[in-house]
Design a protein that fits this description.
elongated, 16 strands, about 325 residues, seven-stranded antiparallel beta sheet, about 30% strand, alpha+beta, about 20% helix
Length: about 325
């Protein structure tokens, strides 16, 4: 298992339909688009829905407008509440409880799946509510998951756009989460090494050997958890294959910082915000399909976005 599973998954139309989950020829793709467009046109007409067709192919209607609010632009961090159903009413996922914090995503081509929600953000302002009528090629394509998602499902998506968040706000949110977790669980010895990176040494290493530095290769056995979870998202113990990290070159700030200055045989723990770890992880809705997508070969991070991590490692060697 590699730690730096930096996803290479573009979530545009072609990527949704041409991934390993959805193997269709170009002709099949064209047929699917034509089929879904006809289905959605019939659904809109037969239900007397006053919706506008977006250039990308989905229909939308604004049920709550806020014309004086800021419009979302590329790279904004956005909070949303939502409900996703098929056009025949089957519930796929619902997150409408505004007493909870919203689900966050970054407005970009790689920010959220299903991609129709991302496209809709480009038509929305803070506080606005929308209904999306989405053909499957802008939703889950030919992907299926148990009985929850069936291939070629056309969707009705209810959206409320909360507001845009600054990177500083979201970083502070995760710092607060980490600090609260440390305090609530009476964890001693953690020190902040860099912005959003907290380290403690649990057992000393062999000080007769050289400690790691920039450019060192550090081999570790490890477990890594989403903060608060009881099961690791990554671990090396089950595979019996230690992981080697090149300090300064891993692409992951929390490893570059947390494994610098360690000794062989030392046991260490690192807590980090997502901005110091898997900052490019894509938001997947519903969340429960993330692991299934990875098992089917999608190159996405298993760690959810905007989620701190807790890395626990034993240093085996420093070279």
């Amino acid at each position: 298992m590699i730690l730096s599973n930096r996803f290479g998954w573009s979530v545009g139309l072609a990527a949704i339909l041409m991934t390993s989950c959805i193997e269709e020829t170009e002709t099949d793709l064209d047929r699917a688009i034509t089929r879904d467009n006809l289905v959605m046109e019939e659904y809109i007409t037969s239900n007397n829905i006053d919706a506008t067709k977006a250039q990308s192919g989905f229909y939308y209607e604004k049920t709550q407008e806020n014309p004086d609010a800021p419009q979302f632009v590329n790279a904004d961090y956005i909070g949303i509440y939502y409900e996703i159903r098929t056009i025949d009413g089957q519930l796929i996922d619902s997150y409408l409880d505004e007493s909870k914090e919203p689900k966050f995503f970054r407005y970009s081509q790689d920010g959220l799946w299903p991609i129709a929600i991302t496209y809709a953000a480009g038509l929305a302002r803070e506080g606005e509510e929308m209904m999306l009528y989405t053909p499957s090629y802008l939703a889950f394509g030919n992907y299926s998951y148990q009985q929850l998602i069936l291939p070629a499902s056309n969707l009705v998506i209810q959206l409320k756009f909360d507001k845009k968040y600054s990177e500083e706000e979201l970083q502070q949110r995760e710092v607060d989460m980490i600090q609260a977790y440390i305090e609530e669980n009476e964890l001693e010895g953690f020190e902040e090494l860099a912005e959003g990176v907290y380290f403690r040494s649990v057992e000393p290493g062999d000080d007769s050997k050289s400690e790691s530095k920039l450019g060192s290769n550090v081999s570790v056995d490890f477990e890594m958890f989403e903060l608060g979870a009881t099961e690791p998202v990554f671990e090396s113990y089950t595979s019996n294959q230690p992981t080697t990290v090149s300090i300064g070159n891993s692409g992951l700030t929390f490893l570059n910082e947390g494994l610098k200055g360690v000794l062989p045989e030392e046991k260490v723990e690192v807590m980090a915000t997502s901005f110091a770890a898997y900052d490019n992880s894509i938001q997947i809705l519903p969340e429960e399909i993330r692991e299934d997508l990875i098992e089917k070969g999608e190159q996405i991070d298993l760690v959810k976005p905007f989620t701190p991590v807790w890395f626990k490692a034993e240093v085996l060697a420093v070279q």
